[in-house]
Amino acid sequence: MMRLRWVLSLLAIVAMANSASAGAAPREPRTAAVVAGSYATVVGLAPRPGGCGDPSAAVVVARLQEVKKTGVSFIRCDLDWWTVQPTGRTSFGWATYDNVVNAAATTGLSVLFVPGFTPPWARPNPLPAGTVDPSHVPPARTSDFTSFLTAATQRYSPIGKQRPAGLKGSVRKWEIWNEPNLSAFWNPANATNYANVLSASAIAIKTVDPGATVISGGMAPAVDGNGNYSAMTGLKAMVATGAIAKINGIGIHPYSFPAFASENVPANPIMNLVPKLA
C-alpha cells in the first residue's frame, strides 16, 4: 500500500475566509449552527464574507489579504458544484472561483478546493428519507460529479488544457466532499458508496493532473450509528474498495473543543483517533 500523507483539515482560518457568495445559486433555507458572535468568542476569529468566493474580485483580494496576515500559507475553500453548474451538465460558471484562485495567487496563498454540493438536476428523485439539505445528497450519477471534477481540474491545474488566459493562479490540492461520514452532509451516509465515489473522483482528477494531491473528505469525529459512521469505518471501506491506493491522504476534522488540542482526553480525536488511523 502506498504511504499516505495524513491531512488534518482545520476550521478556524478557513471560516474567516469562507462564505456563501452573493451571486451563488439560491439555496434551501438552513439554520446556522452558531452565529458570528458566538463563533468569534469560541475560536477568536470572526467569519468574514467573500474570501472563498464572491462576484467581486476586489472583495476576495481584500479578504485573503486579511487571512495572509494571520500567517497561514493555504486556505481550504468549498468548490460548490451547484454554483458552477446550477442548470445542467453542459454549462459552467466559474467566475466566483476564478476570483478565489487569482486572489490567492496575488496574496501568496495556496488553495485546497473541496468540491461538493449536488445541484438540483443531478440529485436522485425521490430524495433519500431524512434529507434536510438536498445539496448534501450524493448525485444520482457519479459520472456527473466526475465530469465536473475533470472540468475543474482542466481549468485550475497548472497543466490543464482549458485554463483561461487571464487566470493567475492554479490549484493542485483537492478534498472530495465534506464530512461524508455524517448523514447531514452525505445522505444516506454509506462508507462503501462514498469510497467508490472517492475512487472515481481521484481517477478523474489525476487523469488530468497526475501530480495533484487528492485527499478524502474530512471526516467528523463521529461514531457508528444514528445514520453516521466513524472515521475508522470510513478508512476500512476505502481499503476494501481500493480507493486508498488512489489518494494521497485521509481527511480528518480533529475538533477537540472544549478540550485543548494538546489535552489527552477521550473526546480529543487528535490524541485518540489520528494515531489509530496512522
What does this structure look like?
The protein has 278 residues and is of the alpha/beta class. Helices cover 34% and strands 11% of the residues. The chain has helices spanning 12-17, 36-43, 57-68, 81-84, 95-107, 142-156, 191-208, 231-241, 269-272, 274-277, and strands at 7-8, 74-80, 110-116, 173-178, 213-218, 251-252. Strands 2-3-4-5 form a four-stranded parallel β-sheet. Helix 6 (142-156) packs parallel to helix 7 (191-208). The longest helix has 18 residues, at 191-208. The radius of gyration is 18 Å and the shape is globular. The two termini are 13 Å apart. Mean pLDDT is 86; it is low at 1-34.
Percent range of helical residues: 25-40%
Dominant shape: globular
Tally of DSSP helical segments: 10
* Multimerization state: single chain
Tally the beta strands: 6
State the major sheet.
4 strands, parallel
Strand numbers in spatial order across the main sheet: 2-3-4-5
- The N- to C-terminal Cα distance equals 13 Å
Structural class: alpha/beta
- Percent of residues in beta strands? 5-15%
Radius of gyration: 18 Å
- What are the low-pLDDT stretches, counting only 5+ consecutive residues below 50? 1-34
SSE pattern, N- to C-terminal: EHHHEHHEHEHEHEHH
